[in-house]
From TrEMBL:
Keyword Signal: no
Species, as recorded: Urechidicola vernalis
Family under the similarity heading: Belongs to the radical SAM superfamily. Biotin synthase family.
Protein's name according to its UniProt entry: Biotin synthase
Role noted for this protein: Catalyzes the conversion of dethiobiotin (DTB) to biotin by the insertion of a sulfur atom into dethiobiotin via a radical-based mechanism.
Record: residues binding [2Fe-2S] cluster: C98, C130, C190, R262
Composition skew (Basic and acidic residues), residue ranges: 328-366
Name of the gene encoding the protein in the UniProt record: bioB
Length: 366
């Protein structure tokens, strides 16, 4: 097994990213084979349990209430509906369900209690459960862990420097603090980012420095290609070239040898050949289902056809870590603290986010 290094520098990562393509692919595939079965890919289903109406200003996100993107918001899905969807996902070959709620941060109360029930319900289906609910406190992380959560997703999105160009409503340190809170439990960390937001290669390397120097490194790292949605501040960004995606996946694989590298948003823009090259370069996880929260994604059937074509198999659940025990609410050791933590609200403004907000207001009032 390759050893995890936690002292990667930006220069070293840039040198890897910029290698001649054939060398980069060879090196990444070699690391990949030492640490993973190259013919196995984890299939996860992403479920939006609460869509839209978010108070944040993430420049890429159609769920931010301040932009005008036509995304229809909904209330929290019921526990029963979530269980049904998880069963369908399992039947379709998924081993993991990731539940996403468009929240700035988790608030203690009845909605969080329901999410805990959802976690218990999916864990009982013998599937890995992941949540992405925004910022969480240590006590909330412990309650999720106790309910049987397998992974918590909280993306760093980009480098610390470029983060400020995309989001103004919270700081990079908030992200790291939430990851730190998750690390105080046995829940695994899923954290990655997005390319194609106008960042430069140094920013991509900077994000990989931030992720790879976490100790331990995240068990899962999604690499998203921006899906530019009309109405968001990033609506005019050009699609990412497949070669950039391959370079990013390969570099991630080399600096984070044991991590599951996940091909996430932007897969509809990739050809079968492009996806196959990403698998060769070390991607070993995908999101299934024809929607990723609110943006399009290939159909499950298409994915299975691709797997057959490439002779690949979906990963079984709990192959990397044992299934967490799920404690019932009545036996819970951790109670709601009714915390009202003060996450930061940085004071900088991002002009394009402001402009998109104003345009959104006008369109809504028209
Ligand atoms: S990415 Fe998450 S936090 Fe940011 S606006 Fe969208 S739903 Fe809200």
């Amino acid at each position: 097994m390759s050893v995890q290094r936690h002292d990667w520098t930006k220069e070293e990562i840039l040198a890897i990213y910029n290698k001649p393509m054939m060398e980069l692919l060879y090196d990444a595939a070699t690391v990949h084979r030492k640490n993973h079965d190259p013919n196995v890919v984890q299939v996860s289903t992403l479920l939006s349990i609460k869509t839209g109406g978010c108070s944040e200003d993430c420049g890429y996100c159609p769920q931010a209430a301040r932009y005008h993107t036509g995304v229809k918001g909904n209330d929290l899905m019921s526990v029963e509906e979530v269980k049904q969807k998880a069963l369908q996902a399992k039947a379709g070959g998924s081993s993991r369900v990731c539940m996403g709620a468009a929240w700035r941060n988790v608030k203690d109360g009845p909605e969080f209690d329901e999410v805990l029930e959802m976690v218990r319900g999916i864990n009982k289906l013998d599937m890995e459960v992941c949540c992405t609910l925004g910022m969480i406190t240590e006590n909330q992380a412990k309650r999720l862990a106790e309910a049987g959560l397998y992974a918590y997703n909280h993306n760093l999105d980009s480098s610390e420097e470029y983060y400020k160009e995309v989001i103004s409503t919270r700081g990079y340190q908030d992200r790291l603090d939430t990851i730190d809170n998750v690390r105080k439990t046995n829940v695994t960390v899923c954290s990655g980012g997005i390319i194609g937001m106008g960042e430069n290669i140094e920013d991509r390397a900077g994000m990989l420095v931030a992720l790879s120097t976490l100790n331990p490194q995240p068990e899962s790292t999604p690499i998203n290609a921006l899906v530019a949605v009309e109405g968001t501040p990033l609506e005019e960004e050009k699609p990412v070239e497949i070669w950039e995606m391959i370079r990013m996946v390969a570099t991630t694989r080399i600096v984070m040898p044991e991590t599951q590298v996940r091909l996430s948003a932007g897969r509809t823009q990739m050809s079968k050949e492009g996806q196959a090259m990403c698998f060769f370069a070390g991607a070993n996880s995908i999101f299934a289902g024809n929607k990723l929260l609110t943006t399009p994604n290939p159909d499950v059937d298409e994915d299975m056809k691709l797997f057959n074509l490439l002779g690949m198999n979906p990963q079984k659940p709990f192959t990397k870590k044992v299934q967490p025990q799920s404690v019932e609410a009545k036996d819970s050791e951790y109670q709601s603290l009714g915390e009202k933590p003060k996450w930061t609200r940085p004071e900088h403004k991002i002009e394009r986010n402001e402009a998109a907000k104003e345009k959104g207001k006008e369109l809504r009032n028209a």
